[in-house]
Amino acid sequence: MPLIAVHGLSHRYGGLQAVDGISFEIAAGEIFGLLGPNGAGKTTTLECILGLTAPDEGRITIAGIDTRTDPGAARKKTGAVLQATGLQDKITPREALDLFASFHATPLKTDPLLARFGLVAKADAAFETLSGGQKQRLALALAFVGDPQVLLLDEPTAGLDPQMRREVQDHIRTMKDDGRAVLLATHDMEEAERLCDRVAVVAGGKIVATGAPRALMAGGSLEDVILRLTAS
Amino acid sequence: MNALLHLVALSLKLNFRNRMAILYGYLFPLLFLVGFWAVYRNDPVPLALHVGQFLTVTILGSACFGLPTTIVSERERGVWRRYVLAPVGRWVFVTGVLLSRSVLLLTSALLQLALAFAFGLPVPTHPLGLFVAFAAASAAFLAIGMVIAMLVDNVPAVQALGQCIFLPMLMIGGVAVPLQSLPQWAQHISAFFPGRYAVEAMQLSATGSGIAAAGFDLLALLLIAAASTIAAIAMFRWDKAFKPKRGWLLLALGMWLMVGAMAEMRGPVQIDTRDVGPATNYVAMPSAPAPKMSWQDVTEADIDGIAFTRLPPDEAIVSPVSRSDEVPDPAIQPTLDHIRDALPHWQPGTVTDPVQRTRNLLAIAAVPDILQMEQVERFVPRLVFARLQAVIPPRDLPKILYWIAMHPDDGDDAAIHQLSAFGLPDISGPPAPVRGRIMLYAFKLLGRLSGRIPPV
Questions:
Q1: What residues of B are in contact with residue A84 (Cβ under 8 Å)?
Q2: Using 50, 70 and 90 to split pLDDT, how confident is the model at A218?
C-alpha cells in the first residue's frame, strides 16, 4: 500500500486552473519529487494534501486514510516543511520542539532531535539568531517531532548556500532511510537528481512526465527536459 | 489540554522577552494611572471615581494593540501556517492566544490597582462584581481585537486601525474624559462606543452598588462581544494570502449602533457636579444672619431663612434620598441591613457632644454620596435620619442640624475614616467635599423635621 496516494487532484483559483488532474503514489522509503517552475502547481498540490486548501476534485489518502473524511487522523501521520513559515523571534529551538511535541500523542524526545538535526549548540538560542541553515534544520526537526510516516517538503533548501543545502539534503535522505515516504517539491534539478527516487515534472498544473531522474535526463539535462515538456 | 497549556505558557514567556510588549502591556497602563491621579488628585477620594476609566484604558490598549499585533505578526511570519498543520484542533491556537492575552491583561490590571491603592484608592465595594465587569469588558474588547487582527494584513495596519478605535473612545467615548465633562453632543456619540459601558459597569462595582445595577452595561458588552466573536470567526484566516470576508464587519459595527440606539432611548446621562457651594447659597435672607454663639441660640426664625427649594432634589445625583415607598434592590439589602445593625454600636455615633454626634452620623450618608455608590447613597440617608431622631432629643435636633449646615467646616472629621464598620470604603483626600455633603443632608433632614420639605 502506498503511503501517499493522490488521484485526479484538481484545484482552481478563480480563473486559474492551478492543479489539473494530478495523480501519483509514493511508497514507504521513497523520495518522490515534484519538479517544475514557479507557478506550476507544486505548492497547491502539497497544500491540498495537507488540507490547507480544499481540492475541487480528486482523492488523497495518507497511509490509507482519506484526508477528506478523516483529516485529523491523516495529519497525525504527516510532517511538513512549507515555504513562508517561520517562528517567533524570541523562541528557542528547544522551546519550539517542546511546544510542537505537545501537539502529538507520542512525540519524539527533544534532546535526541536536537542532536539528530545538529542543533545542540543552538538549543537555547533565540530563533532570530539562527543561520538560514539552522532555521531550516529546525523546520525539519519540527516536521519530524511527531514521528510521521509521511513528509511533505516544499522547497526545503531554497535560499541556502551550497554547504547548508547539502546538510539539509543529508537529513532528508536519512528520513527516507527510516522507511518514510517523502514528497519533495523543488525547482532545483540538482537537488531532485541527488535526492529523488522518482520525479514528476509538473507544468501548468499537470504532470507532464514521471520517471527516475536519470531516465528523464536521457538526451539532455533535466532542465532541457522540463523546457521541452513544458513547451509542448 | 497539554497543547493548550504549553501554548499559553510559551506565549507568556515570549511576551516577557519582548521589551516593547512589556512597555505597552504593563508600563503604559501604569503611566495612564499616574496621569489619572495627576489630573484628579484633588478628588475627595483619590482615583475612586475613575476606576472604571483607567481599567478600561488598559483593556482597550490590550485589545486594540496587544492582541492583534501578536496575531498579525505571527501570521505574517508564517507561525500560524505552521500551527495549522498540527494534529490538534485549530481552536486550541485561538484559545491559547486569547487565554495568554487574558492573563497578561489581568496581571496588568492587578498591577494598576496595586499602584492605585498606594495612591489612596479605597478597596472596591464589590470586588467580585468588579472582576465580573472586567471580564465582560475584556470579552467585548478582545473580540474586537480579534476582528482587527482578521481585518488587517500587517502590524503597521494594526497600529493605524487600533488608533482609530482607541483615540475616539478615549476622547469622546467616556473613557479618558469623564462623561460629565463632555459636551452634550459628545455624550450622545459616546453611547455608540463600547468603552462607555465598560467604564460604567466597572465603576458601579468600584464605588456603586455592584453589577446588579449594571444590567444594561453588561448586556451591551455581551452583545458587542457576541457580535464581534461571530464576525471574527467568520473572517478568520490562518494566512494573510487569504482575504477576509469584510462583509462580516457590518455585524460587529452594527451591534455598536444597536447598543447606542438602545442607550439613547434610555435617556441622557445624569451629571454630578460635586460642587455644592457654601451654606449661604441655601439661605434666603439677602444679608448674613446675626452670628450665634451656640447651636442652642438657633431660633425658628433662623430656620425660616433657609431656602430649601434651592437644595438639590432628592432624585438628583448630589445628596440623593430615596422615597419612603421605594424598595431597594435585593442586591444591596444586605449592605443596608449591615449598616442598620451596626449603627447603634458605632462609637462616633455615641460621643457625648450632640453636635459632633450628629455630624458623625451624617458622615455615614455623605461618604457614599461622594463615592456615587448608586442605590446605597440613596437609601443610607433614611437610616441615618432615623438614627438621629432616635439619639438626639426632638427639640434639639433641628437646632443642631441648622448649626451643622451653617458651620460645615467646624468640628472633627475623624469619623469619616471610621466607616469600615459599615462596610463602607475608607476614603482619603481633602475632607471639604464630605463636609459639603454633610451640610446638604443636615439641610434636608432639617427641612423634613420642620415641615418645609414635604415627606415623600
A1: 78, 81
A2: low
Grid coordinates standing for B110? 492587578
By C-alpha distance, which of A118, A128, A101 is closest to B14? Answer: A128
Residue of A49, A82, A99 best to disrupt the B interface, most CBs of B under 10 A: A99
Q: Which residues in chain B have Cβ-Cβ distances shorter than 8 Å to A52? A: 81, 84-85, 238-239
Q: How far apart are CA B424 and CA B383, in angstroms?
A: 14
**Model's pTM, two decimal places?**
0.77
Note whether A57 and A10 are within 8 A (CB): yes
Indicate whether B46 pLDDT > 90.
no
Task: Identify whether the C-beta of residue B408 lies closer than 8 Å to the C-beta of residue B438.
Answer: yes
Q: Which of A80, A84, A95 lies closest to B85 in CB terms?
A: A80
Q: Is the CB of residue B66 less than 8 Å from the CB of residue B27?
A: no
User: Nearest C-alpha of chain B: how many angstroms from A83?
Assistant: 9
Residue type, B194: P
The whole-angstrom separation of Cα A63 and Cα B344 is: 81
ipTM field: 0.88
- Classified as helix, coil or strand, B30 is helix
Question: How many Å is the Cα radius of gyration of chain A?
Answer: 17
What would the pLDDT profile of B4-45 be if each residue is shown by its tens digit? 999 999 999 999 998 888 998 999 999 999 999 998 877 767
- In chain A, what residues touch B85 (CB-CB under 8 Å)? 50, 52, 75, 78, 80, 82
Whole-number Å distance between alpha carbons of B216 and B214: 6
Determine the pLDDT at residue B273.
47
Residue with cell 487574558: B102
